[in-house]
Amino acid sequence: MVQVTSPAFKQNAARALADPGLQKALGKAKGAFLQRRADAVERLPEFERLRDIGRDIKNHTLANLDFYLETFAANVERAGGKVHWCSTAEDARNAVLEICRKAGAKTVTKGKSMISEEMALNDHLEAHGIVPVETDLGEYIIQLRQEHPSHIIAPAFHLNREDWEADFRRMHTDLPADRVFNERRDILAEARTKLRQKFLAADVGITGANFLIAETGSSVIVTNEGNGDLTQTLPRVHIALASIEKVVPTLEDATSLLRLLARSATGQDFSVYTTFSTGVRREGDLDGPEEYHVILLDNGRSNMVGTEFQEMLRCIRCAACMNHCPVYGVTGGHAYGWVYPGPMGSVLTPTLVGVDKAGHLPNASTFCGRCESVCPVKIPLPKLMRHWREREFERHLTPATARSNLALWAWFAKRPALYRAATRAAIGTLGLLARGKGAFKAMPLAGGWTKGRDLPAPEPGGTFMARYAKARRNGR
Length: 476
Prior knowledge:
- By secondary structure, the protein is of the alpha/beta class.
- Helices cover 51% and strands 11% of the residues.
- It has 2 domains: 297 residues, Rossmann fold (3-Layer(aba) Sandwich); 55 residues, no CATH class.
- Helix 3 packs across helix 12 and helix 15 runs parallel beside helix 19.
């Protein structure tokens, strides 16, 4: 099972900051994502208007979620498929296991599914004698390393090329000693050689779904390697895993969101493969599954509908928020301690596992707002993180020191004259202590701050309020 270690975020982050290999990988990968997205947006003048359209599509769907889910399920059944309604991750795991057992499956190929990570599906299948094989290149190397993804679209974001090569040599024992992996395509070719026999031997193929289309009962998956296509067309049985908010009303809505997805995720106009699957193989079809199953997972999402967290359900899993997040950029995804890292994980994880287990995540933010500014469906992520901080405070989950300091600040803030006097005294004292220094490396009673960062020394000129009043008097 994927162990929830979000309560240890500070320790996880400290280890990440001290890991030179991870810092090298993060430094290389982060810049590429940012530049590619910026270039893709520049090429599409109507991108901002398209963001509004995407937001409105998702808002409309969420306002009528029950209708569109029922419509989707009816059209899946009409196309010869079956929908499995699952309230919890355990329900979804058991539904997948039952389908695999009925198919007599010994090997299962998998392609692009973060929901399977949320379900801890691989461990469940292995415990019941079924071998899951990840077919996406990044997820394949992660499986070789017995790790979990550190990024929702680039699972091996935290690795360098030498890490990949070392793991291939360790696990692919028949590799010639003089075989050199100069390019990513060399690694991809080696993986494809090993995976081809797995694709052909698999009894069941499991994929995620970027979107579910109510109008047709179709599932949509986007990939850059074609592994999703092979996973859902070669085996006799195809299982699509999706959470309930992935449904959209029409094909036109799906294509509008697809125009946002790849540009926001990888800077492509469209992913190399965009595959629509509708039902079972029909007469005259050259390929396709004999059985088509959709696992619809709730796992706490319906509890978000109608609350201040409903906007999080607009997420289309592009990862733009984490690609632009300064905190994720130095800690990587594993520090967040569960399936979903970065700003989107800081909002979603407390919903799914509880704020008592994930309260550190909404606090692990600079609130710079970059996540909201790049989100293709305009999710106000900083606002939602503030809501979680409020919930955490209301439930007395924040440390006693933080609560007492906030109470002290609130006492002064409710007394403006006293507040101004106290801030003047504090600024004056710090100014004397600074004695020309730009920042304090350590400060009594402020160890929680100076342990991880410098405390800037106040600039000459008094408090902000005093300087503002002076500027007003001077007509500025």
